[in-house]
Structures are given as C-alpha cells and as structure tokens.
Specification:
The strands form two sheets. This protein has a five-stranded antiparallel β-sheet. Strands 6-7-8-10-9 form a five-stranded mixed β-sheet. It has 454 residues and is of the alpha+beta class. Helix 8 runs parallel beside helix 9 and helix 9 runs antiparallel to helix 10. Among the domains are: 73 residues; 99 residues, 2-Layer Sandwich (Beta-Lactamase); 134 residues, Histidine kinase-like ATPase, C-terminal domain (Heat Shock Protein 90), CATH 3.30.565. It is 59% helix and 17% strand. Strand 9 and strand 10 form a beta hairpin.
Amino acid sequence: MKPEHDSKENAQSLRVRAEQHRTSGSSPNSGPADPLDAQRLLQELEIHQIELEIQNRELHAARDEAEEAREVYRDLYDFAPVGYFTLSRKGTIIMANLTGATLLGIERGSLTGQPFPHWITPKHRAEFSAFLTGIFNGEPPGSIELRILKKGDKSFSADLTAQKGEAGRDCRMMLTDLTRRKEAEKAERLLKTATRSNLKLQKEVLRRQKVEASLEAARAKLSDSLEKSKTQRKELRNLSHALIHAQEDERKRISRELHDGIVQALVAIQYEFEILSQSEEGRSPQYLDQITRTQKILEGSIDLVHGYAFDLRPSTLDTLGLDPALHSFAVRFEDTTGISVSLDLCPDLEEIGFKERTMLYRVAQEAFSNVFRHAHAQNVRLSIFHHREGMRMEITDDGVGIDPAKPASLYGEGRLGLIGMKERAAMLGGAFSLRTKPGKYTTVCVDLPHCLKS
C-alpha cells in the first residue's frame, strides 16, 4: 500500500507544480477566458501537458543518472582487482569481468557458457563441485583455496568466495589470485628462517669468537712456553757442549797423565828389572825366573795403560793428525774384535780444523763401539771424502741393522751413543744422519760444511 500512497502524493505534487506553472503564464496554451467548461477543459489539458513535460524531464535526468551509475558499476565490475564470475547450478559461466578473464588467460567473450571447473586442476575439481553444491543448498557464503589452470598449462593458487544469488538460480563468485600472497608468505617464511639462521649464526660467531679468544690465549701461552722451551733447549745444548768440551779436556789430561806419568814410571821399573836380570852375581835361577815373570806383568800393565790412554785420547791425534790416529785405531780395533776394517781417507784430511778432527775421531770411535757391541758385523768401512763445500764421513757395517720401529734399538741398552754423535756434529754446525736396513747394513753419516782451513 505504501507505493500507491507515494504515487498519489507524487501525482498531487505534480498537479500542484503544473498549476503553478500555468498560473505563472509560462504555458504556451494559456489564453483568454472562454465559457466555463471549455475553460476548465483547456485548463486540465494544459496542466496535463505540463505534467507530461515535467515527467519527461525527470525521466531524462533519471536515465542520465542511471547511465552514469551503470558506467561506474561497469568500471568497478570490469576493472576490479579480483575476478568476478556468475555461475549456474552446473557451474557454467554466465557472466565474468575483465579481470577474471585475464586471470584465466582467455578473452571474456569466450568464457560465457563454458564450465568453470574446466579451469580447475583435476585433483581439485571434486572439491570445487562439493563447495558449489553446498552454496546452492543454502550454506552460508564461504571460500575455498585451490589451483586454477591458466592458458599455456600454467597454474596458480587462488581463493574462491561464493554467495548464492537472490533468486537462487545462480551464484556470484569472487576469484582472488594468491600468487603474490603466497610469494609474500614464502618470503616471510624465508625471512623468519633467515632471521633464525642469522641469530643462530650470531650465537655461533660469538661462540667461535670466545673459542678463538681462548685459542689465542692458549696460543700465546704455548708460544711463551715454546720460547721458554727453546731457551731451555739452548741452555741444555750449551751445557751439553760445555760438558763435551770438559770431558774432552779431562780425557786429554788423564791420557797425558797416564802416558807421561804411570807409563813412564812403569817403563822405568821395567828398565830396572832388566838391569837386575842382566846381573847374575849372587842371583839364583829361581830369583831370575821371578824377575822375568815380573817383567812380563809390567809389559802387560804398560800395554793396558797404553790402551786406556789411547782410548781416552790418542797422542797421535794431537801430534801426527787424524789420518794416523784413525789407522792406529783401525789396527787396534781389528786386533781387539776380529772385525775387518777398511779405510778410505781423502789425502788432504789434515787440512780440516783441530776441533773438526777431534769430532770426527770421537764419532768414529763411538760408531765402531756400537758395531762391536750391537751389529754382529764381519766388516766395517770408514770413508772420509769431499762433499759439496765440506767433508763427509761415512761408517758402514754389514751387521744386523737397526729396527726403526723400536726407538730403544737406536740407543742400545741405556746408552746415548747416537745422541752424543749428533750433539758433537751439531756443535760444529754439522749434520748427523743414520741409514739402516734391518738384516743388511747400517751407515752412520756426518756432514761438515766449510770445515777446510782457509
């Protein structure tokens, strides 16, 4: 009833406006007054004509407004940032906006009448069908996320929101491309992962910095300990060298005292016994035999003391040189041990310095002692020859060799012979080395650079 009442009010308003228009004289049909009926009829006609003109102007204005609203609606509909589709109960596309056609990669004119599930990935079509059926069965507006196919076998994630139309014959669906949102979510996840990794990395950096600081402190402490160790090693080496020098001086002194003191006294005693043995006045045969036995004991004592003096330091090394000292040593070694010795010495051997001669003799003496005690050799060869800018001495035996896997075998039973040889060579800037093959041979090698006299 309200619309009819509004219509009557509008008609009355229109009538009032028409009468006002006629009274003002703006109507072209207004004229002089005639008989009463004609005048009334004419008045009604004029009023009706004015009503029609007013209605016509209002209709034109309403049409223009409707056209403008339609254009606005069309722009909003077609150029919306999401796709709009109107679907039938079977999922057929009734209408679509330009954005929806663009998202599907097809012209809008080709979409009408096409089944919308055609653009849904096969594994999501049943899910979409159930969703659409639920919307038409009166379920409240809802949304679903699935993959949409695009022209060119491409696909993208999309969110579909649907609502049944007012008449219930169709539904309106909004399609939103989730690609950027998915990318943003992925970027956010990556950012969170990177942030966690960065925090973890920072913690690891701090931990490593602490470890590095500890290592640096330990390195500094170790460096300090190494410096102290080097200093101690240097002091020990200097002490060792001093002991070797002192030992050599003491040997020389004792050897000289044995030779010049005890040997001379024993020789004098032997000489007196020889004088007594030559004088036969008042001497019985038993007395002469006793003198003879005593002379033999003296001869043995003299040889023994000579041997001690020679082992301590042969006088020939100081008086005649290294070559005669080594020959005398070789003869004595052969007589004592039964091991054959061969010497191969360079002719200018005496050109080397006094300290170098002593060192080579002592190394040879220790090496021959090791051959006798441990090598079980039959032959030993000593060679001294020019090597590069200095001299090299090699002592090779044909004994059992040394097992490198057993460090104790390098030194014998509690002996430090090889260490002593190495230290003696190092005192003069030389190098000591050892070559061996178990069951075959052992070679002691000493290199002395720049040892010749200038």
